[in-house]
Write a structure and sequence with these properties.
The protein has about 170 residues and is mostly helical. About 75% of the residues lie in helices and about 0% in strands. Helix 5 packs across helix 6 and helix 6 runs antiparallel to helix 8. It is elongated.
Length: about 170
């Protein structure tokens, strides 16, 4: 009987810990995310959706911009998973590579812009907490992670574009 009582206490303590974590988010990161999302939506409304879309259409002509700036804009403005819809601005042959670049960037942006991928925020917060406990700043890591993310998505986009072209050619 003692075992069952301990098991029930352990089970409930798991949910208590989850509730404490959730309350920390409610008083911490969630208001920040709401403010960031409001700011981003305000920027889009001020600039104009049509202007943002025209600009996105123009930059798809250049591979470097197609696999860096376009996914960056998409993830920043729309967040995950809506960012994949920016693939509509690419020619059909570039869509798989754009998707690869965009999906690869949804995590590296989180350290600087948590609104972009709130679903994976727990990963960044875990890393950040470890750094803070070690007495280190998270800002430098967030910037480096962001820059490396841009380099990686460019490489992935270019490689996927070539792989896809080869697959279509051999069809």
């Amino acid at each position: 009987m003692e075992f069952v009582a301990k098991l029930a206490e352990g089970f409930m303590s798991l949910f208590s810990a989850g509730g404490e974590t959730f309350m920390g988010w409610v008083t911490g990161i969630i208001p920040t995310l709401v403010c960031l999302m409001t700011a981003v939506n305000s920027i889009i409304k001020l600039v104009g959706v049509d202007k943002v879309e025209r600009f996105a259409q123009k930059i798809t002509k250049y591979a470097v911009l197609r696999y860096t700036l376009l996914p960056l804009m998409a993830v920043f403005f729309l967040g995950n998973p809506m960012c994949y819809t920016f693939g509509r601005f690419c020619e059909e042959k570039y869509k798989p590579a754009y998707y690869d670049a965009a999906v690869s960037f949804v995590h590296p942006i989180t350290g600087l812009f948590p609104h972009a991928n709130a679903g994976e925020l727990f990963v960044w917060l875990g890393i950040a907490q470890g750094l803070q406990q070690a007495g280190l700043s998270t800002g430098g890591l967030a910037v480096r992670y962001f820059i490396v993310g841009l380099i990686v998505i460019l490489i992935r986009g270019l490689l996927t574009e070539r792989i896809y072209a080869g697959m279509v050619k051999n069809k």
